[in-house]
């Protein structure tokens, strides 16, 4: 979700309600989530990617994977539950109606694949004020329940100041 | 900046820094956004409700940033020929992809260049994505491992 046009980028800094003491805070891991072939196929359909490696186990095996793998942005399905809970913490004070997605980054150990049972654990990496905007970055680790690290997602959300958003 | 590397099973030895990837374009419709809401679990109203999108200062309903990022990911994996080849992938969402209620497609156009060759058979690809003339992704960068 990018910034809408006209959103203030360099307006005078003003006080906002986000609690900067939350920088560095770690949140509990989500309950286990089982990655399924059906969900991967649904996600691939939704992004319009016809690759058989996301749908057909034989095609995935032929490509060198044990089962169908998930597209590179699929981990957001798992991380959003964790980072969303962090952002929704009432003590943090983010006004979600004024939030847009600013940046996203993934580091992969391997693709998520059907049959993986994973948890996601978020930490608030940083909270920065840029003009009237607050930029908050979460780091979310996806691991299997057996402890294998699969992916780290860095998500930066931008909270606009409602008084300047028009 | 002249050599064009064709998609398929791209090999590390065949790639040079500065080579351009073939451009590609991907359609977006209101239906894409409805499907993406369901598949991702992100039901933010600005992705399906024009009235509320406009009330918060947007020109119209906008695509999920993660939908646009997914198109950039596909651009890379179609090029490498291996959807599991990425080791790192990041973007900045610089402008919204506005999706009006029309029968036409909105098109996300992606271009890319091999920015750098790294050790371990990895290459860095820098991308740009545009829609309706605006840059919608900047600082878009993927690291892929090639055979």
Task: Label the overall shape of chain B.
Answer: elongated
Largest sheet of chain A: 5 strands, antiparallel
The general outline of chain A is elongated
Q: Helix coverage percent of residues of chain B?
A: 10-25%
Count of separate DSSP helical elements of chain A: 3
Average pLDDT of chain B, rounded to a whole number, is: 93
What strand line-up does the widest sheet of chain B have? 1-3-4-5-2
The topology string of helices and strands of chain B comes to EHHHEEEE
Cα separation of the termini of chain A: 17 Å
Tell me the fraction of residues in β-strands of chain A, as a range: 25-35%
Largest sheet of chain B: 5 strands, antiparallel
Strand order of the largest sheet of chain A: 1-3-4-5-2
Total number of helices of chain B: 3
Q: Helix/strand-derived class of chain A?
A: alpha+beta
> Mean pLDDT across all residues of chain A, rounded?
88
Oligomer: heterodimer
Q: Termini separation of chain B (Å)?
A: 23 Å
State the low-pLDDT regions of chain B, or none. Answer: none
Count of strand segments of chain B: 5
Bin the strand percentage of chain B: 25-35%
List keywords for this structure.
heterodimer, A: 166 residues, alpha+beta, 5-stranded antiparallel sheet, 3 helices, elongated, disordered N terminus, B: 147 residues, 22% helix, 35% strand
Describe what this molecule looks like in 3D.
The complex is a heterodimer of chains A (166) and B (147). Chain A is an alpha+beta fold and 166 residues long. Chain A has helices spanning 37-47, 57-62, 75-87, and strands at residues 33-34, 99-108, 117-130, 133-144, 149-159. In chain A, a hairpin with a 4-residue loop joins β4 (133-144) and β5. The relative contact order of chain B is 0.23. Chain B is elongated. Chain B contains three helices and five strands; from the N terminus they run βαααββββ. In chain B, a hairpin with a 4-residue loop joins β3 and β4. The A-B interface holds A 1-7, 39, 42-43, 45-49, 51, 53-54, 63-65, 69, 71-73, 76-77, 80-81, 97, 100-108, 110-111, 154, 165-166 and B 26-27, 32, 35-36, 38-42, 44, 46-47, 56-59, 62, 64-67, 69-71, 73-74, 76-77, 82-84, 86-97, 136, 139.
């Amino acid at each position: 979700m990018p910034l809408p046009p006209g959103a203030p980028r360099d307006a005078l800094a003003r006080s906002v309600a986000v609690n900067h003491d939350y920088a560095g805070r770690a949140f509990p891991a989500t309950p286990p989530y089982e990655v399924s072939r059906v969900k991967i196929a649904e996600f691939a359909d939704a992004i319009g990617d016809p690759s058989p490696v996301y749908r057909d186990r034989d095609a995935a095996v032929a490509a060198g994977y044990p089962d169908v793998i998930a597209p590179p942005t699929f981990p957001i399905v798992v991380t959003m539950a964790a980072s969303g809970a962090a952002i929704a913490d009432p003590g943090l004070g983010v006004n979600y109606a004024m939030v847009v997605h600013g940046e996203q980054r993934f580091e992969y150990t391997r693709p998520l694949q059907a049959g993986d049972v994973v948890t996601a654990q978020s930490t608030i990496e940083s909270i920065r004020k840029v003009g009237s905007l607050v930029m908050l970055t979460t780091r979310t680790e996806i691991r299997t329940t057996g402890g294998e690290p699969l992916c780290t997602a860095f998500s930066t959300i931008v909270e606009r100041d409602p008084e300047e958003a028009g | 900046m002249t050599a064009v590397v064709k998609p398929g099973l791209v090999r590390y030895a065949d790639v040079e820094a500065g080579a351009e990837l073939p451009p590609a374009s991907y359609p977006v419709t209101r239906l894409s956004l409805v499907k993406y809401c369901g598949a991702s679990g992100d039901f933010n109203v600005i992705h399906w409700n024009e009235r509320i999108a406009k009330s918060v200062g947007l020109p119209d309903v906008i695509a999920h940033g993660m939908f646009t990022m997914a198109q950039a990911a596909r651009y890379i994996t179609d090029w490498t020929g291996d959807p599991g080849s990425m080791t790192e992938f990041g973007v900045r969402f610089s402008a919204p992809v506005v999706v009006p209620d029309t029968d036409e497609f909105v098109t996300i156009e992606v271009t890319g260049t091999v920015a750098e060759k790294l050790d371990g058979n990895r290459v860095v690809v820098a991308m740009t994505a545009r829609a309706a003339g605006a840059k919608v992704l900047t600082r878009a960068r993927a690291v892929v491992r090639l055979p």
